[in-house]
């Protein structure tokens, strides 16, 4: 028997919070059997249903910021306390896109809020894509944005629930962080590998 194309038949809400919701998706697998899958999403159920039915264009949920400090040529990292692992983890500056906010505005806002640094220029304006980070669990999509920044690091703009240390590192320091047994996000790991070999050339 020829395999079918899997498809979602229905979505129901399991739990809703301000920034994240859980949904139960009833879908037909390739053998024609009805199955259930739990999806975590930033979207409300109406938007999610429209996107599943291809009646609404998918919107990028968040920006991940690869920033080089213009004067020092150092890569900007953050080390942030994350509740799910009850520990600090190395990451790249990042944040959710607010409503219909333009990507460049989200980058400027989140970079300044998390690090105190100022956006100068986005390098990959014409090549920003919607990418997925963990599609076995969530439909969340991100945009990787390469940019230059300037200014001084400060923590004046952090929200009460944000506990963030800012680190500006050179290529040698990137190699040392990779050698150590630090907890880190997969995206920052991949960027540290690239930066440790290429330095500022990652912007090309």
TrEMBL record:
Keywords associated with the record: Hydrolase
Single GO molecular function: hydrolase activity
Stored PROSITE patterns: NUDIX (PS51462), NUDIX_BOX (PS00893)
GO biological process entries: nucleoside phosphate metabolic process; ribose phosphate metabolic process
SUPFAM superfamilies: Nudix (SSF55811)
InterPro entries assigned: NUDIX_hydrolase-like_dom_sf, NUDIX_hydrolase_CS, NUDIX_hydrolase_dom
Origin: domain of life: Bacteria
Domain Nudix hydrolase: 58-192
PANTHER family reported in the protein's UniProt record: ADP-SUGAR PYROPHOSPHATASE, UDP/ADP-SUGAR PYROPHOSPHATASE
Identification of the protein by name: Nudix hydrolase domain-containing protein
């Amino acid at each position: 028997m020829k395999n079918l194309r899997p498809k979602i038949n229905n979505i129901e809400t399991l739990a809703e919070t301000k920034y994240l919701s859980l949904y139960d998706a009833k879908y037909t697998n390739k053998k024609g059997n009805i199955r259930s899958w739990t999806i975590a999403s930033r979207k409300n159920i109406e938007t999610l249903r429209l996107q599943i039915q291809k009646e609404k264009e998918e919107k990028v949920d968040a920006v991940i910021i690869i920033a080089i400090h213009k004067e020092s040529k150092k890569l900007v990292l953050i080390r942030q306390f994350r509740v799910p692992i009850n520990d600090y983890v190395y990451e790249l500056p990042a944040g959710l896109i607010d409503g219909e906010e333009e990507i460049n505005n989200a980058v400027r806002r989140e970079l300044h809020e998390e690090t105190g640094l100022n956006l100068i220029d986005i390098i990959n304006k014409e090549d920003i894509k919607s990418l997925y980070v963990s599609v076995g669990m969530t439909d969340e999509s991100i945009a990787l944005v390469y940019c230059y920044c300037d200014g001084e690091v400060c923590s004046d703009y952090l929200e009460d629930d944000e506990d963030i240390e800012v680190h500006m590192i050179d290529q040698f320091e990137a190699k040392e962080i990779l050698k150590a047994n630090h907890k880190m996000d997969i995206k920052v790991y991949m960027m540290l590998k690239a930066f440790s070999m290429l330095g500022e050339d990652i912007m090309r």
